[in-house]
Design a protein that fits this description.
Strand content: 15-25%
Largest sheet: 7 strands, mixed
Number of helices: 21
Shape: globular
Structural class: alpha/beta
Strand order of the largest sheet: 3-2-4-5-7-6-12
Helix content: 25-40%
Length: 576
């Protein structure tokens, strides 16, 4: 059957058709929907893990047991999973194991623009890179065959444009793959130095065999073109851009296997054209490989290594006109990101700014606390870094920053990697206050469950982590819970906890305003007769509040009735 599918949806379909039986992931844009879609197939066990490292180790365990397994993550998530990644490259697999990593060139929803192809090269693992939804489905199925034939995990690299765009795929039935028996083999699976030394040569032999596959397999193909004055080497979205700009004018070598790359195929292709242009996003991985095998190419000097490419950029940089009208002439105004109306984080961040605290932030929708007018965050690095960073910041200042500095972290991120930082604070007796923003969901990536919500990926009730009990268990004696809609309570408790001469935790608890089960009170009204135009209500940056004719105005279609703004108005102009 033919149908339209998002790249991520097609990836999940590939898992289903390939007979995958176990899926463990951590949500991260643009990879999240792969696992959400896989969970819809009853034949696949699917779960959210607390973090990417746990997900990869769980998927390896399922592979060890003989089932085809999968774990998915975004590019920065692969940093978290790098520890097991490099070692399972040595052990190999039992049942086939596929890893999805989704890069985010252009940083649409990410804190850096790293290129995951470096991981495949460094870990000496095969990496496939599809260029549309149909290839995604096909490559996932091929990845399992490669995994089991060559005894290796296989990485399939997605990116924002492939993950979140639609194209036609043709589906087929699920292949029922028998679970392989597990056989004890310490020399293969116990990576102590003596065994690991013997496994490294096997990895190198495997790389040679995979390089031969790259030479002969249809994963890497040549599209013919009449004009031999230029040949193009590309993969993924860059292949699509080249074809959309030039059509069939120039020959194109499309690389579907990005590691290891072929040698003879590239040399032969280069010999067939007058010059070779490499079109690739971010780092010059293909270009460096070509240079290493003696093939002269042009690439990064033309396109650079920053931001994603487009049809327009490819056309402009290669000196031709874009024939299909991709240029957008209208000047579209920027729409800055903002916390939603009724967001429970808003009142908490207002309180932190009011108290002039230094705030070490973390990864989540609460990062928007850095945006004006709140502007209440001083740093954002990676998941869990706020808690660990707070400890280092306060220790380095020899107590000078005690009482003036806090960390903020979401409930999901706290379970991901914040709890270890809190253990460090308790263990090393840091006079630090950590604020857990518990909105009862993983908000940033689209409302996924996590270990604090009491529900699993499929919505079934499960064990629920008690944050208060957990904080006490790791050695924190002072744990307070506040309602971020209550500004007076937030102000009082935060003042008390930062003044305390010991580690403390404040849990700011209120469900995300967008959760379906959350019932709102109804919009607040603005009384123009009482409003004096002081704009105090604008200090919280709520999108439901605006100033019209020097008076506060409430958009009733956005307002949830949280009442935070009303607490700021000294003249009673805001209320029911």
């Amino acid at each position: 059957m033919k149908c339209l599918m998002l790249g991520n949806e097609a990836f999940a379909r590939g898992l289903y058709e390939a007979g995958c039986g176990f899926v463990s992931s951590y949500p991260g844009t643009p990879s999240t929907e792969i696992t959400e879609c896989a969970a819809k197939y009853k034949e696949i066990y699917a779960e959210w893990a607390p973090n990417e490292k746990v997900a990869m180790e769980s998927a390896f365990g399922a592979s060890l047991a003989g089932k085809r397994s999968f774990c998915g993550m975004k590019h920065v998530g692969l940093n978290v999973a790098a520890d097991p990644l490099f070692t399972i490259a040595y052990t190999g697999v039992n049942g086939g194991m596929v890893i999805a990593v989704a890069d985010d060139a252009g940083m649409h929803s990410s804190q850096n623009e790293q290129d995951s192809r470096h991981y495949a090269i460094a870990a000496k693992l095969p990496m496939l890179e599809p260029s549309d939804s149909a290839e995604t489905l096909k490559f996932v199925k091929m990845a399992y065959d490669i995994s089991e034939k060559y005894d290796t995990p296989v990485i399939v690299k997605m990116c924002t444009r492939i993950a979140h765009s639609q194209s036609i795929v043709e589906t087929s039935d699920r292949a029922e793959i028998p679970q392989k028996p597990y056989e004890k083999n310490g020399a293969k699976y116990i990576m102590m130095p003596g065994n690991a030394k013997k496994r490294h040569p096997i990895v190198e032999e495997r790389t040679l065999a995979l390089t031969e596959l790259a030479e002969t397999d249809a994963l890497n193909k040549v599209d013919c073109g009449e004009d031999k004055s230029m040949g193009i080497i590309a993969s993924s979205t860059c292949y699509q851009y080249a074809k959309e700009v030039f059509g069939d004018k120039y020959p194109v070598l499309k690389l579907g296997m990005i590691n290891p790359m072929p040698v003879k195929k590239i040399i032969d292709f280069a010999d067939s054209v007058e010059k070779v242009i490499v079109i690739e996003e971010l780092d010059g991985i293909i270009e460096a490989h070509c240079n290493s095998i003696g093939v002269k190419v042009e690439g990064k000097k033309i396109f650079g290594c920053i931001d994603e490419l487009s049809q327009n950029i490819v056309a402009e940089k290669l000196g031709c006109e874009c024939e299909k009208g991709y240029t957008l002439e209208d000047n579209i105004p920027m729409r800055p990101p903002v916390m939603c109306a009724g967001c429970p984080h808003r009142g908490l961040f207002y309180t932190l700014k009011k108290n002039k605290l230094t705030v070490l932030g973390d990864i989540g929708c609460y990062t928007l606390g850095a945006v004006a007018p709140l502007a209440a965050i001083d740093s954002t690095i990676c998941m869990g870094a706020s808690v660990s960073g707070l400890h280092g910041f306060n220790k380095a200042n020899d107590g000078e920053s005690d009482g003036k500095t806090v960390a903020v972290i979401g409930d999901s991120t706290f379970m991901h990697s914040g709890v270890t930082g809190l253990i460090n604070i308790a263990y090393n007796e840091s006079n630090s206050t950590v604020i857990i923003l518990d909105n009862s969901i993983t908000g940033m990536t689209g409302h996924q469950q996590n270990p604090t919500t009491g529900f699993n990926l499929k919505g079934d009730p499960c064990a629920k982590i008690d944050l208060e009990a957990l904080c006490h268990a790791v050695g924190i004696k002072r744990v307070k819970v506040v309602d971020p809609y209550n500004l007076e309570e937030c102000d009082r408790v935060i003042k008390e906890e930062v003044a305390a001469k010991e580690p403390s935790v404040v849990i700011s608890r209120r469900p995300c305003a967008l959760l379906k089960y959350v019932k709102h009170k109804g919009a607040i009204m603005a009384d123009p007769n009482k409003c004096i135009g002081c704009k105090s209500c604008m200090k919280i940056g709520c999108p439901a509040i605006s100033i019209t004719d020097k008076k506060a105005k409430i958009d009733s279609t956005l307002c949830t009735g949280c009442g935070v703004c009303a607490q700021l108005c000294k003249f009673g102009a805001l209320g029911k």
